[in-house]
Recover the amino acids of this structure.
């Protein structure tokens, strides 16, 4: 459930987050995250503009009195100072005594997106400012790395190590991840009435609905779990339609699902870095390598842009090994050189 931050918002940010949800179609959770990023931005600006605050107390600086006059003082160079703080001095894990400093480019990109969206709203939608300082603001360059995923045998090993009191439920959860490529938020949000024969309706980013088709393995897992699910009594009204139920008889949480994946990966002696999102990568990679068209894969994953889906066109070590062996010089030996001379 999204946290309600509206009581501590200045009115100008409250109007912006309302716009995100009601007009732009963002989810309340996304609007809350935009607010948290902007809250950090304005806290930094108060220090940057020489107000009676220090960076040491940044996480406690109030922003409820931020108004349009304050916002109009902000220039592009001020935003660059904030980004420099994020890349050099912002703690990665603020509650950890052994944290490192400097946020990754992906974290900084999300904050840049929030800043750009906010100033775009002020300039073009609310028409409260004439000069948009974030108009030329670019996203930080992303570090490119190969997608981490499980191969087919590791995926089977993961499924084979699911056991315990909630084995049937957990098996169904992992099976849906590995076959449908869902986000964890999409999986925990599934309701009973979202299952329509061999089709499954999920609610993705930006409240965009899409329909997924269930293969035989998913249908078998669901058909085994559904009688257990429907026999559970005492579920509160707000979660009465939820597909996956926790031991406390509430809709299962994202944190619980993340913990389950870590637990079963450990039991299967798999890479401890494998996460629920890596299972989404696994599903996408296995589908792509089995011949699924990239645009079809884009629809399955719910990607807004094809560029996002193209990360699955990577080649793995087996492909690289075969490519090297195909080189005509692959069988050349030093003795051959002597004979030719």
């Amino acid at each position: 459930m999204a946290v309600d931050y509206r009581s501590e918002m200045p009115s100008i940010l409250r109007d912006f987050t309302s716009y995100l949800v009601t007009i732009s179609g963002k989810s309340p959770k996304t609007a809350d995250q935009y607010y948290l990023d902007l809250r950090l931005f304005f806290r930094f600006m108060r220090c940057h503009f020489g107000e009676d605050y220090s960076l040491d107390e940044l996480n406690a600086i109030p922003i409820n009195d931020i108004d349009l006059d304050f916002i109009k003082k902000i220039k592009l160079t001020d935003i660059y100072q904030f980004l420099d703080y994020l890349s050099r001095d912002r703690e990665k894990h603020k509650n950890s005594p052994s944290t490192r400093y400097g946020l990754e480019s992906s974290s900084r990109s999300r904050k840049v997106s929030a800043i750009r969206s906010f100033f775009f709203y002020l300039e073009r939608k609310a028409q409260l400012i004439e000069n948009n300082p974030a108009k030329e603001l670019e996203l930080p360059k992303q570090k490119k790395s190969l997608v981490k995923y499980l191969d087919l045998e590791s995926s089977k090993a993961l499924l084979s190590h699911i056991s315990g009191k909630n084995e049937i439920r957990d098996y169904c959860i992992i099976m849906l991840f590995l076959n449908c490529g869902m986000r964890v938020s999409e999986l925990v949000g599934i309701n009973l009435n979202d299952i329509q024969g061999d089709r499954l309706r999920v609610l993705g980013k930006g409240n965009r609905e899409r329909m997924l088709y269930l293969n035989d393995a998913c249908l078998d897992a669901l058909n085994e779990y559904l009688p257990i699910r429907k026999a559970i009594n005492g579920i509160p009204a707000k979660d009465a339609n939820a597909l996956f139920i926790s031991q406390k008889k509430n809709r299962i949480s994202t944190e619980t699902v993340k913990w389950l994946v870590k637990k079963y990966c450990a039991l299967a002696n798999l890479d401890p870095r494998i996460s629920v999102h890596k299972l989404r990568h696994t599903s996408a990679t296995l589908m792509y390598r089995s011949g699924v068209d990239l645009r079809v894969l884009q629809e399955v994953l719910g990607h807004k842009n094809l560029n996002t889906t193209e990360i699955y066109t990577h080649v793995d070590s087996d492909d690289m090994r075969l490519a090297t062996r195909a080189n005509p010089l692959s069988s050349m030996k030093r003795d051959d050189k002597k004979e030719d001379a």
Notes: The longest helix spans residues 28-48. The longest strand covers residues 199-203.
